[in-house]
Write a structure and sequence with these properties.
By secondary structure, the chain is an alpha/beta fold. It contains eleven helices and 14 strands. It has an eight-stranded parallel sheet with strand order 7-4-3-12-11-10-9-8. It has a two-stranded antiparallel ribbon with strand order 1-2. α1 runs parallel beside α10 and α9 runs parallel beside α10. The chain is globular, with a radius of gyration of 22 Å. The two termini are 32 Å apart.
Length: 308
């Protein structure tokens, strides 16, 4: 069975379609709209298909016993709840983000961590919504996302297979995409478990399966594409040394460009699995083969070989 494709913006995501590349800005903007714009520009220039942010209502997402805990921040020492508010964009900032993405020709979305955040983000009609791994078991939140009618991506880090099954059952199969993930920042290679992509493809053959990575480096994300991920998501940053919990597990601008370029090369290299003798091989074949096999007449520049 082939996964049913899902339309996100003007793109189709699914088997046989180009890999959909999401640049996760998340909270790496550190509350700066200017930095957010620069990250959008970097993603668009690298050829990414989407950028994604995170949206929270701090009073709902921060445990009350942590509200008054003080911490050092780039803006000085403040309580944790004050810090969380400082990191959140409001309606004015998201309107500017929406306009900037339209100018750059890239779609955007956000991981919504609570129901009011779903309502807030949905007003901007983003291309899709994302449920973070931490939200996979929050069924009321998942159902709030479903009520928007937007495509939904769920990440599956820190989750059991039973929890993934329950989330898929709660959301239904329409316009749903599932991302394999491991929720460690940064994630050690031995915990990436990329063969889970095949496991999820077998378990949910009707859903597009992708990969949300938090590792250091690019090779394992390319491997995820080779293993069948039809969309990928990586955190991005202008500098991994910037302040913030997600910066170290993020991809800098130069790496982002290599990530996308090589994904496109991998797509071309994977082919369709049908054995062919290409026109570029014919001279070598004539020169090096001592005994020629029976071959079909070349059609459209490609010869299909028969026999031994």
């Amino acid at each position: 069975m082939t996964a049913s494709p899902v339309r996100i913006g003007n793109r189709v995501v699914g088997d046989g379609a180009p890999v959909f590349v999401i640049a996760e800005i998340g909270i790496n903007h550190n509350g700066s709209l200017d930095l957010a714009r620069r990250l959008i520009d970097a993603a668009a220039q690298a050829g990414c298909d989407a950028v994604k942010f995170q949206k929270r209502t701090p009073e709902l997402c921060v445990p009350r016993d942590q509200w008054r805990l003080e911490r050092e921040t780039p803006w000085g020492r403040m309580t944790y709840i004050e810090y969380r508010h400082r990191m959140e964009f409001g309606a004015q900032e998201y309107a500017a983000i929406d306009a900037h993405c339209r100018e750059r020709g890239i779609v955007w979305s956000a991981s919504c961590w609570d129901e009011p955040s779903v309502d807030f983000i949905a007003r901007f009609e983003p291309a899709f919504l994302k449920a973070a791994s931490a939200s996979l078991t929050d069924t009321p939140l998942l159902r709030a996302m479903r009520r928007t009618g937007l495509p939904i991506i769920i990440s599956t880090g820190m989750s059991t297979m039973a929890e993934i099954d329950a989330a898929v059952a709660a959301l239904g199969h329409d316009d749903l995409l599932v991302a394999h993930s491991t929720s460690s920042y940064p994630c050690a290679p031995e915990e990436l478990n990329l063969r889970m992509i095949a496991t999820l493809r077998e378990r949910f053959p009707y859903l597009p399966i992708g990969y949300s990575g938090h590792e250091v480096g690019l090779a394992t994300t390319w491997a995820a594409v080779a293993l069948g991920a039809c969309f990928v998501e990586r955190h991005i940053t202008l500098d991994r040394a910037l302040w913030g919990s997600d910066q170290a597990a993020s991809v800098e601008v130069g790496g982002l460009q290599r990530l996308v370029t090589n994904i496109r090369d991998i797509e071309k290299a994977l082919g369709d699995g049908v054995k062919r003798v290409y026109t570029s091989e014919l001279a070598q074949r004539a020169k090096l083969r001592r005994i020629a096999s029976v071959a079909a007449v070349p059609r459209n520049g490609v010869t299909t070989a028969h026999g031994g």
